[in-house]
Specification:
This protein is an alpha+beta fold and 161 residues long. The chain has one domain (40-157): Sandwich (Immunoglobulin-like), CATH 2.60.40. Helices cover 24% and strands 37% of the residues. The chain is built from 3 helices and 10 strands; from the N terminus they run H-E-E-E-H-E-E-H-E-E-E-E-E. Strands 3, 4, 6, 7, 9 and 10 form a 6-stranded mixed beta sheet that branches. A 4-stranded antiparallel beta sheet has the order 2-1-5-8. The radius of gyration is 25 Å and the shape is globular.
Length: 161
């Protein structure tokens, strides 16, 4: 007696189901990936650090309370600033298009909206009391009436002597 294994309709159905399952799994995996936020960069001399947003709503509004809370979040993105150093801030064009302001240690510091991708400041301006060893700089995307994102950097004062 001879036995034959059929590779008819049932086999095709299983292959189709497996293919559909794999395609569905691939789409689920892709949808789990988040689009990265725009980046902001701080440069002092030849040192440069860059980060994604601590808080960001792509085109949507963030409440002032959330902005203040985000601007106080600790960050591990830091750069050392020496006396007299020029601190350069760069933002992605989409941030510049909306405009941005600066917060220092969770409080508004430069409130005139900046609409360029690049701006320079004296590093001394970020250590107000002369005794601080660090300051938190927050770049806040602000279109003049609504907030959209916050990027945080720790500025470390260069050790004296």
């Amino acid at each position: 007696m001879t036995h034959t294994i059929s590779r008819g309709k049932g086999s095709r159905t299983i292959r189709t189901a497996v293919a559909i399952g794999a395609a569905t799994l691939g789409l689920v995996a892709l949808s789990a990936c988040e689009k990265p936020t725009p980046r902001a960069t701080v440069t002092v001399g030849s040192d440069s650090v860059s980060t994604e947003a601590a808080c960001y709503e792509d085109g949507a509004t963030i409440s002032q309370e959330k902005v203040l809370s985000c601007a106080e979040e600790e960050t591990d993105t830091s750069i050392t600033v020496d006396e007299g150093d020029l601190l350069r801030i760069g933002v992605d064009p989409e941030i510049a298009e909306e405009g941005w302001v600066l917060f220092l240690d969770g409080q508004p510091a430069v409130t005139d909206k900046i609409g360029k991708t690049y701006r320079s400041f004296s590093g001394d301006a970020f250590f107000r009391d002369g005794e601080s060893k660090s300051a938190q700089l927050s770049i806040v995307e602000y279109d003049g009436s609504e907030y959209h994102g916050v990027w945080n950097f720790e500025l470390k004062k260069a050790s004296e002597g």
